[in-house]
Give the backbone structure.
Amino acid sequence: MRKPAKNKWSKGLYKKAIIDQRKFMWEPEYVALIAKWVGFKQGQTVVDVGCGLGYLGTLYWPHFGKQGKYCGMDISPKLIVQAKKLSQSWAKGGKTEFKVGDAYKLPYPDESADVVMCQTLLMHLDEPQKAVDEMYRILKPGGAVLCKEPDNLSWSLQHSLNSLPELPMKDELFFRKIEYIYAQGRANLRQGFLNAAPRVPLWLKAAGFSQIDAKIASQASLGVPPYETPRQKHEIAERKESICRGKEPRYKKQANDNFKKTFFAGGGTQSNYDKYLKLRQKYRPRKKLYEHQINDGSYYWFNARQLFAIKGSKPK
Ligand SMILES: C[S@@+](CC[C@H](N)C(=O)[O-])C[C@H]1O[C@@H](n2cnc3c(N)ncnc32)[C@H](O)[C@@H]1O
């Protein structure tokens, strides 16, 4: 196995993300629909690649767990220990197995799984095709793959609407250009693809999968004051937290350094970087207004979440 890179997902904000962001990600009714669409059946052996804390296990266990087996694997030994502990509450004594391993060399024999699934794994890999090829290898003929990945680039580029004054078109377009450069920088630094989802069908096809199809997640992200639904209450709390975090000097410096490195890696020029800093300064009052609206509960937003479920099957 490759020496695991220092794994960021087992601590701090990253770990918080794989707990908090999952709370309202997929509704049970929609999970049932996807389970049927993919072909989950009771008694199956299901492998979750890059399982983190086992979130996909908690979602799909009701659809295969009776006499079935959940195999969670992740490159982080810490997460695997915790996922195993957490599984006691959802698998309730059913068959589970947790392994530390690398998506590029899955620790399972050829043709041993009925379903292989992953979520927000491929987007972080420098060689996602290699991982998809491995998923194909361990699937039984007729087995299915389910990849849940986002298109965060389109998400950040959508026009959408909120309760702040709109920016002049030329500044709006400039900020979007910066997003493109940043996404390119991540890819160039081999940190994966912000827009992984639209690439997944091609990776599946290249691995040999057929019957490839995709669905988009069912929920939009919106906040209508006074935020009456549990999901809106959760999202507004997250925004408040993120504002506080953004003011911490250590976090601020880390975020700025990371942005700068990624921007230049993406082909950004010094003059665009300087212009970006200037515009950020110009729009500080707008940022203050955002914080004010969040804190006094008057902020409105509407955003489509660009998260997808993509499936394929291994020909018999
Ligand atoms: C964004 S988290 C997603 C976790 C989980 N699938 C979920 O949706 O909550 C990405 C996960 O992939 C794991 N990971 C990253 N690179 C990996 C690799 N090469 N092999 C296996 N797991 C990997 C990380 O440790 C982390 O747990």
